[in-house]
Amino acid sequence: MSPAEPLVAAPPRDALWFPRFGSPPPAAGTAGTRLVCFPYAGGTASVYRDWRGHLGGAVADVAAVQLPGRGLRMREEPYTSAEPLVADVAGELVRRGITRDYAFFGHSMGALLAYEVACALRDLGEPGPRHLFVSGSRAPHLYGDRTEHLLPDAGLRDFAAGIGALGDGDQALLNGAYLDRRLPVLRADLRVCNGYRWRPRRPLDCPMTAFSASDDPVADAAEVEAWRPYTAGSFLRHHVQGDHFFLTAGGPARQRLLRELRGELARLAPTTPSDSEQRNASWTY
To answer: Which of 108, 135, 137, 212 is catalytic?
Structure first.
């Protein structure tokens, strides 16, 4: 570095894992549930940037996880396997004190991560999420049978387009520099998903809500329904119109998703000992 080159302060660690999008962080001791959101493969925390406004008073805050390789973390190597990723996210949540009165939401790969992080926090003796929302994702035991991460770049571009990752108006990005920059992150995330192997564990205690979409080529209704035995609490599945990325489209499916989330989160009462902790829950599959 030359003497004339200005020093640029590195972003604080919290801003790397949980970037803020305009709204200030909640004040210490703020009551209410915090919703922690996990991105889909190749996705960034910015997909959840406006959720705090949509969810209103149903949440104290929305904390979106930013994984390495994207956003302010572009220079970091992305994870390529689930185990270290889950351990690091769980550790960061504990370090920041986000393990009291919280809920998880994850879409596609994000649903898998949310489930595994919930299990990891339980293993650490931390309180579990008050509610787990999974969207556009097969149940964990159905992962590990695909090989998209092995496709050449052209094939990976076609795969991304085929599942609706680019949206209706973005086909020009198929051959553009933007997508080329995103391919390594998408490939790494797909390696996380395709290399994942579920291991039998006790079901989670929290209620679970799942969302499936009518034209989703990645997770059909039956594969989303297969999440049911992963909770000893209540399970509810909503089926919406749309493709795999219905949560990023501006149509009625996204509106319904946010409306259902707002309703479920608003119904969360102050933390009390869960009845399900007293159950002798059966093991999943």
So the answer is: 108
